[in-house]
Amino acid sequence: MSKQYRQILVLACFFTIAVFFVAKPLYAQVRPNVNLIVTPQSVAPNQHVTFSIESFSFDINSATVSWFINGKLIKKAVGEKTFNVTVGKAGTATTVLAHIVAPGGIVVDKTVTLRPNTVNLIWQAKTYTPPFYKGKALFTYQSDVEFSALATIIGKNGVRVSPQNLIYTWSVNGDVQADKSGYGKNTIMISSPLIPRPIYVQVDVTTQDKSIHSSADVTIAPLAPQVVFYENHPLYGTVYEHALPDSVHLIATEIKIAAIPYFFAGSPKDLTFTWLVNNKQTVASERNSLVLRNNSGTGVSLISLSIQNVQKTLQAARSTFSIQF
């Protein structure tokens, strides 16, 4: 055997041994990839939450999984891939640990800490309601509606984060409203589309460091405005407590009808009132009032009123009732 051949053989053996000793520890340092999935991602107080683990590095069904809540062992079993827990009140920390012993003795720990927070999404339509009306102003065709996010976000220090120090991301029908989103922007104004359809609004609220996240959403559909008839009593004024029924029996010699528009947008000056008595247009002394007198003894009259917003085509309402003399 030549000297050169022996040198080549020695070098080959050296590199084989080196690769063997280097490659083995490198292989041992490779950690299996395990994902811990939380559903839902945005957690509200006292909400039921599901944790699940998955891995494409080994057969998770053959692994021994131990689930801990705040350091206390709750469940341990082979192939225990899912775990359910009910979180506490707003700001209360719940730490969940999945301790996984994979086939071959490899140990993996996955931990997540949840702090439930709340975001209430409320809306207020910019439509008209009469005095002393206790209900909610409704969102109608071609009107505006304002959404407000009322966030209760508890920081890691246990102190509530000021709503003005949060970041709000607004989406309307799935489209992010970048110009209306941002730091402290907890309100958004939206106009009803010309073609009536429901509006889906979502807001994502995060802290500045993105460590805490919460969200809320709501769907509202525009409605048609309304007109309601009341008696305008000579002593008590408009009797808002009792709307007139579809059929009115007149006992006195006359009655003054007050027509009150509900949920119209814009200025009242933009509304036109068209009264019909037995399908014939009549001119009222006041546009939203009509005086009816019993001049024929007995009979029935059909009263109809149409209200139209001259600036907004879809802002219209019509109502009828009959009066028996």
Please describe what this structure looks like.
There is one protein chain. This protein starts with a helix and ends with a strand. It has one helix and 24 strands. It has 325 residues and is mainly beta. The chain has one helix spanning 3-29; strands spanning 34-39, 48-55, 64-69, 72-78, 82-86, 94-101, 107-114, 118-125, 144-152, 167-172, 175-176, 182-183, 187-191, 199-206, 213-220, 226-233, 237-243, 247-249, 254-262, 271-277, 280-282, 289-293, 300-309, 316-324. The chain has four domains: 1-30; 35-114, Immunoglobulins (Immunoglobulin-like, Sandwich); 119-220, Immunoglobulins (Immunoglobulin-like, Sandwich), CATH 2.60.40.10; 226-324, Immunoglobulins (Immunoglobulin-like, Sandwich), CATH 2.60.40.10. 8% of the residues lie in helices and 48% in strands.
